[in-house]
């Protein structure tokens, strides 16, 4: 079994749903942190969801507030993402938020 430490990054330039991470075939990912940084000087909100292999959507955070010019870590415990599952983020306002997820992939 191989383990690889990685990160996934997105700049939320729209208010549309944006994929942060998709677990590859025969792989499980364990996210240690999902950091959201607001660089606009204004508060905003973010929604984080997990879509499973059957396309069911599970809300992890719904309209979570950010801090103007601040950083928030969405996770307080590790989050397991299994093969073919997708983490998605949605910003309430465009061009305000950056998201970085730190994880280990196990295959």
Q: From the 3D structure, determine the CATH topology.
A: Jelly Rolls
Rg (CA only): 14 Å
Helix content bin: under 10%
CATH class division:
Mainly Beta
The average pLDDT score comes to: 96
| Count of discrete alpha- or pi-helical segments spanning 4 or more residues | 0
How would you explain this protein's 3D organization?
The chain is mainly β and 107 residues long. The protein has a single domain, classed as Jelly Rolls. It is built from no helices and nine strands. The strands form two sheets. Strands 1, 3, 6, 7 and 9 form a five-stranded antiparallel sheet that branches. It has a four-stranded antiparallel sheet with strand order 2-8-4-5, with no helix packed on it. A hairpin with a 5-residue loop joins β4 (45-51) and β5 (57-65). It starts with a strand and ends with a strand. The mean pLDDT is 96.
Record keyword descriptors for this entry.
single chain; mainly beta; Jelly Rolls; four-stranded antiparallel beta sheet; 60% strand; globular
Explain the layout of strands and helices.
Layout: E1 3-12, E2 18-22, E3 28-38, E4 45-51, E5 57-65, E6 71-73, E7 79-81, E8 86-91, E9 97-106
Antiparallel strand pairs: 1-9, 2-8, 3-6, 3-7, 3-9, 4-5, 4-8
């Amino acid at each position: 079994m191989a383990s690889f430490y990685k990160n996934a990054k997105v700049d939320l330039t729209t208010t549309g749903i944006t994929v942060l991470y998709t677990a590859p075939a025969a792989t499980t990912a364990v996210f240690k942190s999902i950091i959201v940084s607001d660089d606009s000087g204004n508060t905003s909100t973010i929604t984080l969801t997990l879509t499973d292999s059957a396309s069911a959507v599970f809300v992890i955070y719904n309209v979570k507030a950010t801090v103007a010019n601040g950083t928030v870590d969405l996770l307080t415990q590790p989050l397991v993402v299994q093969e073919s599952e997708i983490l998605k983020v949605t910003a309430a306002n465009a061009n305000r938020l950056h998201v970085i997820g730190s994880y280990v992939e196990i295959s």
